[in-house]
Amino acid sequence: MNDKLYSIKEAMIFSQRIAQLSKALWKTIEKDWQQWIKPYDLNINEHHILWISYHLKGASISDVAKFGVMHVSTAFNFSKKLEERGLLKFSKKESDKRNTYIELTPAGESILLSLMETYDPDKNSVYSGAKPLRDLYGKFPDIIEIMAIVRNIYGDDFMEIFEKSFANLENDFVEEEGKLSKKEYTLEESV
Fold first, then answer.
1. pTM higher than the cut 0.90
2. Alpha carbon of 102 to those of 68, 160, 168, 187: distances in Å?
3. If the chain, 191 residues long, is cut into consecutive pieces of 10 residues, what is the mean pLDDT of each piece?
């Protein structure tokens, strides 16, 4: 007797629907992402590592791998290339000699901030595809169901870092004349 609350057919249709939509979306995202970072001589993994390093401030290679959804060796190898370019620095902690930690150098932060300043929504296909929904409903899709699926797969830690990076963007950056730039804090604000 089958006491499952779903049928195999229903599960397969859902899984394949997600797979096909994800693949189509990823191909577009990948193309847009590569075009955006190309002038900075970065690949997607390198940019993602810089992004994670910026938001995690002193992340371990394991953390970068986890939150970058990449193998530890991939995170290490691309981080090493970024270190050779002077964009990251490696360190060990006195209390934790086993893990390797990375931090953005000023040059790494400069490239990341420059990338954010050059972001052009009109050159982003996913933005363009979602814009009619924003025009219709007054906001972009919340994608809360997708976030719930990802949370169930990768856990609360992953989603906390995911949300933190966007909270950082919201709090630490301003938009002026159609460009993003890091907010300049006064002495009182930074205390």
1. no
2. 14, 20, 19, 28
3. 76 94 96 96 97 91 94 97 97 83 95 93 94 94 92 93 88 86 71 50
